[in-house]
Specification:
With 176 residues, this protein is of the alpha+beta class. It has one domain: Umud Fragment, subunit A (Ribbon), CATH 2.10.109.10. Helix content is 23%, strand content 27%. Strands 5-4-3-6-2-1-7 form a seven-stranded mixed β-sheet. A hairpin with a 5-residue loop joins β3 and β4. α1 packs antiparallel against α2. The longest helix is centred in the N-terminal third of the chain and has 24 residues.
Length: 176
């Protein structure tokens, strides 16, 4: 005899799909297209709106975090007008080319691309940097893998920056 489908499970799955679809829509709405032009990417959307959208997406999973970018080493992919959405990831799941946020030896959060695995950890480098980072990405300092970039209108975060309690942690696109 065939068991009847559990309708409550079907509704839960359907609701989760709708939630994920909504998150994807929010992500796409705030995600400014990447360009090959110099400088930090920007969109026409004010910082407070983009931050609210990024936080809505991050709330969908306890392992997702929002970071504010400062610095230029990752332009034109992301820069001073960007928020990063990261996912907690197992160290063994990292691959060359992934964008990560990690904590360096002086305690700063750094957003760079990993390029090579060594026995001691991953070598990272900013797109615009001539040299690799002086610190390795390890399982102990890895904060997450970047999976979303939200760009906001240049200059719209000045008032919000004064209220640092409301802002996400800063991930530096450092130049070494």
């Amino acid at each position: 005899m065939k068991a009847l489908p559990n309708l409550s499970t079907g509704n839960a799955i359907r609701n989760r799909i709708l939630t994920l679809a909504t998150a994807l829509s929010l992500l796409c709405a705030a995600f400014a297209p990447l360009t090959a032009t110099a400088g930090a990417p920007s969109s026409g959307v004010p910082y407070v709106n983009v931050l609210a959208d990024a936080r809505k997406v991050a709330e969908l999973n306890s392992g997702w975090k929002v970071f504010m970018v400062k610095g230029q080493s990752m332009e034109p992919h992301f820069g001073a007008n960007s928020l990063l959405l990261t996912a907690r990831t197992e160290f063994k799941g990292l691959r060359p080319g992934m964008l990560v946020v990690y904590k360096d030896a002086v305690g700063d959060l750094v957003a760079h691309r990993i390029i090579e695995l060594t026995p001691a950890g991953w070598v990272a480098k900013g797109f615009n940097n001539d040299k690799v980072d002086p610190y390795l990405v390890t399982s102990d300092n890895l904060q997450g893998v970047v999976f979303g970039i939200f760009n906001y209108k240049s200059g719209t975060n000045q008032i919000a920056l004064a209220d640092s309690q409301n802002n996400p942690p800063v991930a530096y696109a450092k130049t070494y």
